[in-house]
Specification:
Layout (H helix, E strand, L loop, with lengths): L4 H8 L10 H9 L10 H15 L23 H17 L1 H9 L3
Helix pairs in contact: 2-3
Length: about 110
């Protein structure tokens, strides 16, 4: 459902298609040749790729293809004071470099 009706139709027509709820297993299956392709959120998959590289001491390489347009999520708050606290905290993190460090840590590898 999340990836749309075209993807659902392709998945339904592919006998080898399966979903794996534990994404660290997806990346291991790809890196060890058990599956030819995985589909997932870039930052989550790169997080697991980094962990596998650290654990195995091997610089596994992957080829990434953008299949879907990016989705930009937003935060919503019922309480305006909580929203203001969030905004202040985010501004502080951007100002002192923690925000950029997080993007670097969980972004591209």
């Amino acid at each position: 459902q999340a990836l749309g009706p075209d993807f659902a139709a392709v998945a339904a027509a592919s006998p080898g298609y399966r979903e794996e709820g534990q994404q660290h297993r997806q990346i291991r299956a790809l890196l060890h040749g058990r599956v030819p392709i995985i589909i997932g959120d870039r930052r989550i998959l790169y997080h697991h790729l980094r962990k596998v590289r650290e654990e195995e001491g091997h610089d596994h390489s992957v080829v990434e293809h953008d299949l879907f347009p990016p989705i930009h999520y937003t935060a919503a708050f019922r309480d305006p004071s909580v929203a203001a606290d969030f905004d202040r905290g985010l501004s502080a993190m951007k100002a002192d470099g923690r925000y950029a460090a997080l993007l670097n840590r969980y972004g591209e590898v």
